[in-house]
Amino acid sequence: MNVSKKKVCIVGPYPPIKGGISQYDEFLTNELNNHADVTVFSYKRQYPQFLLKKREQVDANHSISDCCISNIDFSLDSINPLSWVSVLAKIRKIKPDLVILPWWVVYWAPMYVVFLSVFRVLNIKTLMLCHNIYEHEDHYIKRAISRIVFKLANFYLVHSTSERSKLLPLIGGKDYIQHLHPLYEYSAIKDQEIVPRVQDGRINLLFFGFVRKYKGLDLLLEAMHLLNDDDLHLTIVGEFWAEKNEFHDYIEQKNIANVSIIDHYVADNEMKNYFLDADVVVLPYRSATGSGVIATAYGYHKPVLVTNVGGLAEAVENKRTGLIVEPDAESISSGITWFKHHKGHDFSSEIS
Q: Is the pLDDT of residue 312 over 70?
């Protein structure tokens, strides 16, 4: 007997839109397509340009034609309610069993209140995929707005115990799932490519992703200064959302050698080179919920050095898939030294 697949809609960013949420949605869609009929509604404009200043929203090296799924619609405009109405009409026609809405910043509250309210009237079930319950640059007004939005969904998914503790007071006993951030599997990576680097005595450290203040790059640079070790090389890869000049000035003032900065958004085909060349991926965050960078590192069979904040430690088996340290320069420097002393260890055998 043929059983028809469930219908699922995802409303969220998707490549060529930049960022970790977009990448997450792409991997989620690929996986869900094995079990359901998935339609993605993504953005022709995710944010008004003034919020991003000179930064671009779209990866110029990635085309919409590169999308690996056919059921995708790039007509949503976050600041044009007419586009909301159009997408809602399309979703109503699909009659999905579930609509998934990723949540990470309060910016989405106006659109989500409209969407979730309409879905309730239409009796369409909704799941909020909670990357952050409250955003990193938090404020009591933002928290109040977030509470309004969370009351409207049916189901919830969080990736850490810390986020679950924030979620539970908001949802009034509704169903939720807590699940570690899934690993990313890169089709471009073959098992035979994931081999230890040539043992030349140098430790290659990788800091990857948008550079924002809460991610603690300043702590990592201070740790590099404390170590003053010619055998260390740090590669910083990602667009700077914090003041880039401050980091450059610190590197020059402290005369920190062996630091490379790749100040632009890196697509998957370029990202591969940095991860394969790394010995350890460093997340020196001051605060966090979770991180797709850990999932990416594990996807390339690379260990991580993470600070014990938010849900980062939950994704690491200490001294097996990585190392957990406190969020200060001295602890981070000690962690780097630990990896140097364990350079010959094949961490890839621990990561799966």
A: yes
Q: 68: helix, coil or strand?
A: coil
Distances (CA, A) of 123 to 97, 175, 271: 10, 17, 42
CA–CA dist 38, 332 (Å, integer): 42
Is 189's pLDDT higher than 80?
A: no
Does residue 16 have a cis bond before it (omega within 30 degrees)?
A: yes
CA 24 – CA 40 distance, rounded (Å): 13
Give me the residues paired with residue 128 across strands.
101, 156
pLDDT in tens, 234-267: 999 988 876 788 888 899 999 998 999 998 888 7
- Return the closest-CA partner of residue 282 out of 213, 196, 203: 203
| CB 11, CB 87: distance < 8 Å | yes
Reduced to 3 states (helix: H, G, I; strand: E, B; else coil), residue 157 is strand
Longest dimension (CA), the chain: 71
Q: pLDDT at position 66, please? A: 57
Go through 170-201 and write b for each residue having 16 or more CB atoms within 10 A of its CB, e for each that does not.
Answer: bbeeeebebeebeebeeeebeeeeeeeeeeee
- Number of H helices and E strands in the chain, helices first, is 11, 13
- Full-model pTM: 0.83
CA distances from 60 to 55, 151, 212, 241, 265 (A): 12, 38, 22, 19, 10
Tokens, residue 227: 């170590």
Q: Give the mean pLDDT of 172-188.
A: 81
Query: How far is the CA of 215 from the CAs of 6, 218, 268, 286, in angstroms?
Result: 39, 8, 21, 6
| Residue 298 DSSP label | H
Token pair 């993504």 is at which residue? 42
pLDDT category of residue 84 using cuts at 50, 70 and 90: very high
pLDDT at residue number 193? 52
